[in-house]
Amino acid sequence: MENGASSYRRFLAGDDNALREIIELHKDGLALYLNTIVRNICTAEELTEEVFVELVVKKPEFSDRSSFSTWLYAIGRNIACDYIRKSSRRRTVSIDELYQMSDEEDIEKNMLRDEQRIRLRRALSELDSDHSQVLFLKYFGGFSNEETAEIMNRSKRQIENLTYRAKQALRTKLESEGFEYEEY
Predict the structure, then answer these.
(1) In whole angstroms, what is the distance from residue 158 CA to residue 164 CA?
(2) For the whole model, what pTM was predicted?
């Protein structure tokens, strides 16, 4: 399935409907991914908008070296990291404040329908940022190790190691909460 590259080329050629296609295809997944970085769904949604604004204003070149979604998520990650750097200079927000956001529950319920997936998502949000990012990209975003490495600006080997450690951390977290699952 086409993941946005041809729509982006059409947008650059002047087709405004193509931008709408890109936004509809990527906005929810990108917002949830950025939430793994900034830990605030409202901020993640704002940063998602900034990603699309960057496409409109700067019209960065897409080189086809990776999939369009990998390229788009990498832009999002860079914007989120810039936001964190800037906001860390302004004010520190406690983790408890971030979990007070009611909007996060609505989006998660739409994306993750059954109760086990909701519990899994909550456990993911309690992992450190790198662990939740790698698991989200690989298992919710469907990105390969190579694409995840490109998005997170790491090597493939680092992603493999990070994925292993993230799975272990998630397993420990879920088991401590009494989560039961079947081994395959």
Answers:
(1) 10
(2) 0.67
